[in-house]
Amino acid sequence: MTIHRVIRKVQRFEGWFGGSAVLCLIAGLYLGLIGSPPDYYQGEVVRIMYIHVPLAHTALLAYIVLTIGSLWYLWKRDPIVDNMCQAVAGLSAVFTALALGTGMIWGKPTWDTWWTWDARLTSFTVLLLILIGYLMLRTFVDDPEKEARYGAILAIVGFVDLPIIHFSVEWWRTLHQPQSISMRGVSISSGLLVPLLFMSVGMSLLFSYMLMVRTQLLYLDRLLHAKKGRLLSQFHLSKSDS
Amino acid sequence: MTSFSVIRWIVWKDFVTELRSRETISSMVFFALIVILIFSFSFSMDQQAAREVIAGIMWVAFAFTGIIGLGKSFSTELQNDCLEALQMVPEAKGAIYLGKVAANFAFMFVVEILLFPMFVILFNLEVVEEISLLLLVFFLATVGLSAIGTLFSALTVQIRAREVMLPILLLPLVVPVMIAAVEATKGALNGDPPAMYEQWLELLAIYDVVFTVVSFWMFEFVMDS
Fold it and tell me: Which of A15, A215, A241, B54 could form a disulfide with A87 if both were Cys (CB 3.0 to 4.6 A apart)?
């Protein structure tokens, strides 16, 4: 059995993505943690922003990739696209959870609370619930083709829903009480922007690298299962012949 | 047979089944009554406190009972391989979807109409002037719940642990419906001027249109085999 040509391409280029991710992240961490000045209001605490904001960006990027992959799968029904979707869904869930976690850690010193039902926190929580639902759904379907199809449907419906969820939650909060704590309180100066840019690019590259590795892994796992099935059936046939 | 008659036959079939067995609506109503009972234990409510929380309690009860109805909608089709028969209908699969949405909507709306007087009596609500607005809120929110719920009922019916997966997948996706329905109901029950909450009605209407279209389109992929 030959390896899929997309996987061959991925194997050739993944090193570049991983390497440049490491370089960008090292540069970003150095500039963010040591090179940049502390914030006027928040002091040293602001430095968690260089992790938190890129994580949140990458989580959203991952969900967009998942949606495109899902549409592509429903159109072409290529199993390798589904391997990509499965890989990206897991990564998206991890990045979303990490964004929420770092946000809570940042919230404790600045807002003096771990959690508030702020619009963005709430819509990110709903996003995480949708992604966990997606991963659970996939484990409960026996037929791989059906698993891929159902996952794609859920991802697309979720993608359409996310903006509506975001707006409804935003209205809900702003109607109840004026937002006492706003993310826009932090004005971005260029000294903060450069490390943030490095970290965002680096995090996206890291995500791409992880996506490539994980897609390969799932693809090879599928090949292995197919091969195992064939060998087993050959074994049973030869036994019944003798 | 045209697509329109497919829709009509599906609705007719679901109504007749329900009239003969009386399973879905009765189980939904009794479940909702139990939910109301448990909520009244959980919050000690005078009339003032009731006004604050009653809209939320009402929609939690409606959403949970709705999920019971939605789950039964397709799981009854598993008996005698009726689901496969539906998949073999030569007309567009969207017709089956619309028929099921109409039937699910009717069951949920009937249950809400039956339950609403209970809320009025048990929690001493004054609703006479606002009744038409409340019915509009019920209508719009129930269309939204049944539009997306029917899709996920069809999707979860063929997987393991479907009774668990339907609410797990559905509830995060209907967050906008729940927020909008609760806020609009609260506004109407408080006797606020409609201008204060009409944006929630608009949100519900947009949600209904968007998810009827998206679910109609996605239903083709759920049913193809």
Answer: A215
